[in-house]
Amino acid sequence: MLNLLRARLHQGHQTVRFPDQLPVLPDRFRGRPELDASRCVPECQACIDACPTDALTHADQTLRLDLGRCLFCTDCLQACPTDVIRFTQDHRLATRTRDALDTTGEALRLAHALDEKTRRLFGRSLKLRQVSAGGCNGCEADVNVLNTVVFDLGRFGIQFVASPRHADGLLITGPVTENMRLALTKTYDAVPAPKIVIAVGACAISGGPFVDHQEVRNGADAVVPVDLYVPGCPPHPLTILDGLLRLLGRIPETYLPSSS
Amino acid sequence: MTSTREMRPNTLIPLREIPIVTMSEFRTAVLTGVAAGTRVAALFGRPCEPDAVQLIAVLANGLTGTLSVAATIVSDAYPALTPECPQAHWFEREIAEQWGIRPEGHPWLKPIRFHRSYRPGHAVWSATDDEAPLPSVTNFFQVRGAEVHEVAVGPVHAGIIEPGHFRFQCHGEQVLHLEISLGYQHRGVERALVGGPGKRTIHYMETLAGDTSVGHATAYCQVLETLARCQVPARAHVLRGIALELERLANHTGDLGALAGDVGYLPTASYCGRIRGDFLNMTALICGSRFGRNLVRPGGVGFDVDGTRVEQLLRRLASAFADVASAVPLLWDSSSVQARFAETGGITPGICRELGLVGPVARACGIERDVRHEFPSGIFQFAHIPVATWHSGDVFARAYVRWLEIQRSIAFVGEQLSTLPDGASRTACEERTPDHLVVSFVEGWRGEICHVAGTDREGRLAFYKVIDPSFHNWIGLAMAVRNQQISDFPLCNKSFNLSYCGHDG
Known about the structure:
The complex is a heterodimer of chains A (260) and B (505). Chain A has 260 residues and is an alpha/beta fold. Chain A is built from eight helices and twelve strands.
């Protein structure tokens, strides 16, 4: 018993003050990328050729980056001779539409809140059923982390529940394998309407590294309608939490908390 | 002429030096090898002309650190090894599913991933090539009798975990048999690796099992470095070793927290859930990613650390050790936890050897099976981590082995950070020796990761086999819950914490 109390004292209070304050992210953390195409060498294709998921494209003299496909790896940085691409520390990446993830490096149109009626239903109590549909356990692990004392998801009224019938929506990870397609559809159907769907990670948005494999469906919105896209491979837990809170209207649209 | 070719991991042998023997010689080589104490580390097929399949077996001898490779040609069927060599059971089901080769006499021949045959016109189960199999649509073992009932769980589970299907045969609360049906996570990685390496290859490795990014990426990089005959700088070996142990630390800590949670012991559950993140964040301090993505690269590492970063890592390591040393031993002092852990989900060393189980599961049966000890590569050739074992084979043993390993990994990481060698952290790794075979081993946090690669005459990957430790160990879980209460299944499952996607590929 004494050991237990000693341990409790030792462990202290560990919950971050997000969203009021931003926890310190590692300096090598790769958040929202910025592109400066004015530095591009004419005719250079190096980053496009290096990108493992064809997230980078060149159209009308403009370099575009599809954050839905981006693995936030460093292959393009290493290939680029003129440092056109730079990862910022900005953890905010979630959007409401697939198109909003296709950028030329400008500020993202971050997710806006659900409409008033839906927000009245879910704003203070959102129950989600998680479905991994070919996820590698990276996204799953960093969603799970939100349940730890560090993020304490429950304080926002958000909870992961065991049954789709108890849920207000689904949080989907993985590229949606052919072998999980039916189970995902059935789980979606079992959630009572109105319901929302959140796609977490490059796989659930675009198929990720497995895009165009015959064994996968290139993401959740090939099977069910998606209301929130959270890019990353995997997204940082803060990126996921930021997206959830934006969806519920708990974070103003352009808000960036100050660092602790 | 002998029927096998001896080799060591991370060395090259010409493919033509693997003797192609008759099926009966091949079977004898595998059966006598296993009877003499080696283990089936890999057993797989690769297509060969004309319209046949070459079976390759890699037997691992942990005592000598050597491997024996045997090969034979088969077209449609062969006498199964499983009846005499149970650890071949899952491999033979995989061969049947991938190549349409029937291992005659296999006691439980069923698909393991539910996909079409890779060899047009040859399928063991579906009548036509167009017919896509549906996952878990198959016969399950059934027990009949008064008050016997069946419980089906999954693929979608109650927690935030990957999908799989579990079919229990119960009598009252007692589990008579569990059958595990997987394949829901199958993304076709192995198929996509053929003809490579390409620009996606390393990313496939890092997402084969996302919680084992460092483990699988290291196994793959060892393959490429062996093919390139390149000398990886010592500094890179050390940084990889640190990353591999940080991966182990994060996952073992998380597992101990989750085990505590499963028996309703909330202090350790809360503390370890958080401390796990501290280890992940140490990896992120090195490379920006909590899962070590982009860190391990062919020829070395993608990120180096300077003196300040090393100091910061050492500080964080000390503080994480203090935290984990305060949180975990509470489990051993609590009688309510011990009442649930002890004598639950036991497996015997005999079962463990027979089924070829690996990793902490095997070490929890008192078996000294650890790649870092038996087939060391990289820094583990020079810095030895003592093998942690416990004898009781139950949930307690699997938890306790993790705790022993946490302490030893922390000591190792601290020592390596303090004596980080100078020099480069990456070297060129472009060449690929054509027509050769490489076998690479890494002790991932779940156990033995084995990659086997062969190159074609242009030096491209002609075949690439990935054996995640979960491939060996899922059957161990099924054995562990026999005659247990079904309510102890979550606890037993957590004590194995196996990978679904690592298995499904």
